[in-house]
Amino acid sequence: MREALLHDTLSGKLMPLRPRDPGRVGIYACGPTVYSRIHIGNARPFVVFSLLARFLEHEGYEVSLVVNITDVNDKIYDAARAQGRASGELALEMTELYLADTDALGLGRPDHEPLASQTIGPIIEYIQTLIDRGHAYTAEGDVYFRVRSDERYGILSHRQLENMDQGEGAPDPAHPSRKEDPLDFALWKGRKADEDTWWDAPWGEGRPGWHIECSAMAEQFLGVGFDIHGGGSDLVFPHHENEAAQTRAARGGELARLWMHNGMIQFTGEKMAKSVGNVASLHEVLAEHGAEAVVMYLISGHYRQPLAFSQAALEQARANVSRIREAGRRLSPGESPGELDGLRARFFDALAHDFNTPEALAVLNEWIRRATSSSTVSPGDSHLREMLGVLGLQTLLAETAQAPAEVRDLAERREQARGARDFAAADELRAEIAQKGWEIRDVAGGFELLPR
RNA sequence: GGCGACGUGGCGGAGUGGCUACGCAGCGGCCUGCAAAGCCGUCUACACCGGUUCGAUUCCGGUCGUCGCCUCCA
User: Fold this and answer.
1) What is the pTM of this model?
2) How far does the CA of A332 sit from the C1' of B24, in Å?
3) Which of A16, A95, A144, A225 has the most CB atoms at less than 10 Å from its CB?
4) CATH topology of domain A18-262
């Protein structure tokens, strides 16, 4: 079991992963708000934290990964209203599509995927505790968190209250704020006339604010002071800062021991996202390039760095994936040669060093080169299978499908033509085979048929 | 204005105080009827200006540029 070194946003340093309970790691990663189908950017944290969990499991930890689904939110009300639908119905549909879209990545599911709408009871208790302790107050049906009551507020995002642009825009005399302080944020929002999803609470009908749900859901599954809290870097402030503040105020302890944040996917070039609805949706990218290429694309850069989205980047990922698939065809099932043990170790060392997937991939490439050069025998594939498994790319080693009889028949006829040195006929048959979606390759003593 | 991150070869993208990252593309070669796939070789960079150092792409300072957050966006 390697000791993983992970970058922690709170301290700004690489920190050794020292689990609260030795041998067990709890991870909570913020999932999407389901008001539309998710885009490729939403897929990054899903992939990063799913694979991090796989890696830690590989190292022998017992991992519990929790990824929430925010299904109560202003954007959901807005989107539903625009479509003339009930917000609950839209949220349900988008939740199902989110599950389907991420299923298609082929990485399995997190251990728990709580819904905000199914956590209302614990959220209300949480808010009540904050009120009782003097950290929150009611105001005309809303409940706000008293930011200045948390003396550590700002430590995660490295901000000082004095320096904060209060973010409220110009005060509107017609709608005076109900907050005591512009810094305060909503724990509960009183029901508005055009909102069709709400719950009863001691302070009136309404629904939870954004941040409180995560504190409540994380605590339900992982308790206070769990190991890793993750999400996109755009969530550091205010979302995670607020979660941390709530938990300190209500529980007297830190929510998480270590905070990890992934960089943003940048939409540049021709796919420039002018408005929010115009970005590359995950299901479209998956349909065009396949799950392996999408996963490869997402791990081709370090998780903390920004990653540019482009057609060229996805195509390169496809090329990388097909190189690995080709290499797999030249291996045999079984133990890999012992002289490659060092490379196998370096692969996992790279992942243990702040989950450096690009470096791990470099080592994997070196493994392939060493395994498939020189030697005339076909080396065992156990190392590659193990490495790809942790990256969620084990399907690259799957058996290639058997070509249908009619294609095999064409291939046999081509063999005969070649034997008779009738190359014009052979080339025609190759074109015919290609038309049927298969590629024929001449190999020692025969041919090989591969799906194109 | 505040906080934070980043500028690496044609492209993508790691990393390090001195030793080939890696992949894609290109080029040369091997193999092949021709291909495809593969293998071998090759192109070898660290924005700019100072400083520290025997030595800096790597540390420090500055300049220029890019990006994220500071409005419930992963």
Assistant:
1) 0.94
2) 27
3) A144
4) Rossmann fold (3.40.50)
